[in-house]
Amino acid sequence: MIEDFTYYTPTKVVFGRGAENKTGELVAVLGCKKTLLHYGGGSAERTGLLGRIRESLREAGVSFVELGGVVPNPRLSLVNEGIELCRREGVDFILAVGGGSVIDSAKAIAYGAADEERGDVWDFYARIRVPRACLPVGSVLTIAAAGSEMSCSSVITDEATGTKRGYGNDLCRPKFAVMNPELTMTLPAYQTACGCVDILMHTMERWFGGGGRMELTDGIAAALMRTVIRNAKILVSEPENYDARAEVMWAGSLSHNGLTGCGTDGGDWATHQLEHEIGALFDVAHGAGLAAVWGSWARYVYKENPARFAQFATEVMGLQPAATDEETALAGIAAMEDFYRELKMPVTIRELGIEPTGAQLKEMAEKCAAKFEGGAAGTMKKLSAEDMERIFRAAM
Ligand code: NZQ
Ligand code: ZN
Q1: Residue 129 and residue 195: Cα distance in Å, rounded?
Q2: pTM, full prediction
Q3: Which of 160, 183, 206 finishes a domain?
Q4: Is the per-residue pLDDT at 376 higher than 90?
Q5: Which CATH number is 361's domain given?
Q6: Residue 2 included in any domain
Q7: Could you give the 3-state DSSP secondary structure of residue 156?
Q8: How far apart, in Å, do the first and last CA atoms of the chain sit?
Q9: CB 149 less than 6 A from any atom of ligand 1
């Protein structure tokens, strides 16, 4: 059955070589008075990208202030610093130069700075209040991964309590996304691979939902996933292959802007929820955390819908059907794990280089379940805290 859906993608995409030099114009036409230039821990400065962005803003007559220092799994403390800065300086536009972490931090600052109640921005992530406004955000993307450049969500970590929370609202969808695939050529191989895993997972989460499917969406989703797999393998040996970078970058945006979820129930998302708990406690790279738990999640739930897993095995992983859907399903899961290994991604939690204790696995499962009404995550199979703990243990 095809579920009803709303598809909303207001983000203007400027894609290609040298696209970053158009950033100033893109901000200027929005008519904002002062911009916050927000960035990460140093890569954008080192590569000269920030210099070109400053130049582009100055040329377009855009005045700006700066706040760098966003870390992966972006932190609430810097978000609060950004909100203060925006209020003090009268900032009315936020330009994120970086990856998902910088864009997510920018979105959180944008909610906080536009909040007339001047309350705690964490309230939105903790579902205590709903934002009524958000400053406009734009981005210059430097890593293909999270899809935040076109998505409605942002994920922030309150480092004081070790809590990582995502929040989705159309208000924060970026006004524009500048995407030059060349900018991603300076990424370490590990980050490129993490990005490819995350891109795949955003469509896999939607593919493995609890109901609702559409032939057209399945076709788009399968093509997207096959494209990412093929080009991720190319990038292992040819990190400067422009076309492979471009395929992956565009796939990253389409994988999380809603397109591959049209007609579905919205997706399962349990693997993401499980990863967010690992990321909150151990600060691992998001994509690597997903690779470490996905196989264990899949083996735990595939019996709910072996035919859907079998379809994944044949249409995405390119396998021949086995005697039964169950066998095909398991072969498809193993094939995806082999692909992760080819990218040097972990397929267990230990391979992330961490060693959570039994008590920590239990704590992560309980924290994860507590985020949901009724204490259950996922739609392919509703997972209780006990289920999640079993998955974490299987993933060790
Ligand atoms: O800080 P710098 O020095 O820039 O280094 C970054 C960072 O260490 C580096 N990097 C980025 N572009 C580079 C580069 N290094 C060299 N050359 C470049 N061109 O890469 C590292 C990772 O960056 P980050 O922004 O953290 O990566 P990603 O885009 O994977 O974002 C991860 C965050 O996004 C969240 C994750 O949970 C995680 O916190 N997610 C956000 C989503 C959303 N908003 O829709 C959805 C996702 O599912 C995800 O949860
Ligand atoms: Zn993700």
Answers
A1: 31
A2: 0.98
A3: 183
A4: no
A5: 1.20.1090.10
A6: no
A7: strand
A8: 37
A9: no
181 pocket-lining for ligand 1 (C-beta < 6 Å): no
pLDDT score at 373 = 82
Q: Which of 156, 183, 210 is where one domain is finished?
A: 183
C-alpha span between 22 and 62 (Å, rounded): 12
Helices then strands (H, E): number in the chain? 15, 8
Q: How many domains does the chain have?
A: 2
- For residue 132, the domain's CATH number is 3.40.50.1970
Q: Give helix 385-395 / helix 286-301 axis angle, nearest 10°.
A: 110
Structural domain range at position 261? 188-395
Considering every ligand atom shown, identify the ligand nearest to the alpha carbon of residue 99 and give its number.
1
**Residue 318, ligand 1, Cβ within 6 A:** no
CA of 322 to the centre of ligand 2 (A): 31
Ligand 1 geometric centre to CA of 383 (Å): 28
Looking at the fold, whether 156 and 217 belong to one and the same domain comes out as no
Ligand 1 pocket, 195 CB below 6 A?
Answer: yes
> Whose CA is closest to atom 36 on ligand 1?
286
Q: Say how far apart CA 81 and CA 177 lie, in whole Å.
A: 24
CA–CA gap between residue 313 and residue 328 (Å, rounded) = 6
| Residue 43 beta carbon below 6 angstroms from any ligand 1 atom | yes
Are 386 and 252 within one domain? Answer: yes
**Closest Cα partner for 262 from 301, 312, 206, 210?**
206
pLDDT at res. 374: 84
User: What's the half-sphere exposure (Cβ side, CA atoms, 13 Å) at 202?
Assistant: 27
Q: Is the pLDDT reported for residue 375 higher than 90?
A: no
Number of Cβ within 10 Å of residue 188's Cβ equals 10
Considering every ligand atom, which ligand is closest to the CA of 166? 1
Residues with CB under 5 A from ligand 2 (ion): 198
The 10s digit of each residue's pLDDT in 292-333 is 999 999 999 999 999 999 999 999 999 999 999 999 999 999
- CB of residue 73 inside a 6 A radius of ligand 1: yes
**Does any domain span residue 3?**
no
Q: Are residues 98 and 21 in the same domain?
A: yes
For residue 143, which atom of ligand 1 is closest to its CA?
12
Q: Quick check: is 6 in a domain?
A: no
Tell me, in angstroms, the distance from the centre of ligand 1 to residue 140's CA.
Answer: 12
128: amino acid identity, one letter: I
Contacts of 88 (CB under 8 A, 6+ apart): none
108 touches ligand 1 (CB under 6 Å): no
**What is the CA(202)–ligand 2 centre distance, in A?**
6
